[in-house]
Specification:
- The protein is an alpha+beta fold.
- The chain has nine helices and six strands; from the N terminus they run H-E-E-E-E-E-E-H-H-H-H-H-H-H-H.
- The protein has two domains: about 60 residues, SH3 type barrels; about 120 residues, Lysozyme, CATH 1.10.530.10.
- The protein is about 45% helix and about 10% strand.
- The relative contact order is 0.13.
């Protein structure tokens, strides 16, 4: 099976809404909220900048669709006991190779779920890096949800099953991971829960940032490689013969 890999366009955020990495929330008429750094009105459109750097990207939303703005709550920060970055990266890459789910997507889910804290416990009892409920962990064969490798392996297997169930639709898979497949089936898509919608947008935004950064890095490396190539001399057969 080929590796599941997608790049979700930034424009999708205007549809799914939710919390992004920024300083205020734009509350939309459809019940979604978009978190952003700052905004400006451009004609009949309001441009929401994702960070202080304008080059980092923005989302255009029809001004008529925005009901209000309000200060955004603090971002989820990595806790005092995060998994070591090198170890976590190795664990994520291993699970990605084993279960054919994009490593950056897994990393974005982990960041949204636990802030990279392998000992995180939610008020509802979800545990570990990928916040597995005890019953779900048991079904997945996860013996210790606080063991980083065991937790990520089980969580990625569950995430992979959801991606396959929804034909690689990341939005539906994330909604099901957060609220349960039965809710996605009930509402035929993302359920109307602010928490779920914010969660979906948060993961997609983080994932997009990783992919945009990778794309820019690849472009820079390509330009450098091209600039480093020596200029090729155009020598036709005639010119070669005439030089002898």
């Amino acid at each position: 099976m080929r590796k599941i890999f997608q790049f979700v366009a930034l424009g999708l955020l205007a549809a799914v809404g939710g919390q992004l990495y920024a300083a205020e929330l734009a509350n939309l008429r459809n019940g979604f909220s978009i978190r952003h750094e700052r905004h400006e009105v451009v004609g009949t459109t309001t441009r929401l900048y994702m960070s202080a750097d304008p080059a980092s990207g923005y989302v255009d939303v029809p001004t008529a669709e925005i009901e209000s703005f309000e200060p955004a709550p603090p971002e989820l920060k990595d806790t005092a006991a995060p998994a070591k970055s090198g170890d976590l990266r190795s664990i994520v890459n291993a699970a990605s190779d084993q279960h054919q789910v994009d490593a950056d997507f897994i990393a974005s889910v982990i960041r949204a779920e636990s802030g990279n804290n392998s000992h995180a416990v939610s008020p509802k009892g979800a545990q570990g890096l990928m916040q597995l409920m005890p019953g779900t962990a048991n079904k997945l064969g996860v013996r210790d949800s606080f063991d980083a490798a065991d937790n990520v392996d089980g969580g990625v297997r569950y995430l992979r099953d959801l991606l396959l169930l929804y034909n690689n639709d990341m939005v539906k898979a994330l909604a099901a991971y957060n609220a349960g497949p039965q809710r996605v089936q009930q509402y035929k898509g993302v359920p109307p829960y602010r928490e779920t919608r914010a969660y979906v947008a948060r993961v997609i935004t983080d994932y997009n940032k990783k992919k945009l950064a990778e794309r820019r890095q690849t472009q820079v490396q390509t330009r450098r490689a091209q600039a480093a190539k020596p200029a090729m001399t155009d020598r036709s057969p005639d010119s070669i013969a005439g030089s002898e």
